[in-house]
Specification:
2 domains, 339 residues, two-stranded antiparallel sheet, globular, Aminoglycoside 3'-phosphotransferase, Chain: A, domain 2, alpha+beta
Length: 339
Amino acid sequence: MDTSHLPPYVQALLDPTIFRHPATDPSLVQTHISYVILAGDYVYKFKKPVNFGFLDFSTLEKRRHCCEQELLLNRRLCPEIYLGLVEVHRRGEGFSLSGPGEVVEYGIRMRRMPEERMMARVLDRGELEKSHLDAIVDVLIPFYRQAERSGEIDAFGTAEAVGVNVFENFDQTRDFVDQGALSKAQFDGISAYAADFLKDTEKFTSRIRAGRIRDCHGDLYSANICLADKVYIYDCIEFNQRFRYSDVASDIAFLAMDLDFHGQLELSAYLIDRFVRTSEDDTLVDMLDFYKCYRAYVRGKIGLFTAGDPAVDPAVKEASLAAAGRYFRLAAGYAGIEG
């Protein structure tokens, strides 16, 4: 693999001798915001120096702060995975982890989970069962009950605040309409549905009164769940509170939507029924399609952005556009319009 385009510290971390534990043939996984090094039994995650407005990792100090937040917030659900902050030091032309020299980067060290037990892979193999969902719900119910609630957090549950997140998606995808994945009929229909639903402000106010707005996970779907010796739910949103301070219904709707996307409609319905009964949250179902629609649209938007990245190869672009199209059709279905 050609690594010459990577930052020097990332190149150094692909050398197994830099680690104080066995790490034969370390490998790199990139996202649009992270460098992830898979090294033996551990994972090292570093934030790219990017600023997307809603996310700002542009300075070393900001990246350190977000690493500390990532550890703090994710330890709520799986402290066994999130081991600690790491420092990359430079001395002369060389680099080391937590050694002498100038600190040039911060990251987090995580325990590596078995890839074959990732929920997305379990889904792809057709092996997801109701017992898995029971275990997930049994983790989530106490998590939400203990999650922070305050006047500041409640304010993110108003129709006005939710509308900021929802309408932002339409602003960011308007230029993609009729470009292959999102039709004008879908765009117009979904945005009209969202605007109409948000007019019923009492629905949102009643959820606030019921104490359903919490410091949630923010990115609850199969890519961030591992079904190993127990359920591990990781990689919550740490970089922007407005994506994490939300109605519990928005969090759980994301996972239900993800099951719908994978064609597991029966399991999706089972998840919601089990969650509603166990949490005694009967009004969650009144918000479900709205939040499913929102979450599906977000995933479609991400697919458009990925496909539009000039750095991605043609196969990734094609797959991203295909997935985006499926997500927008799903969102249209939740909105009650023809996809």
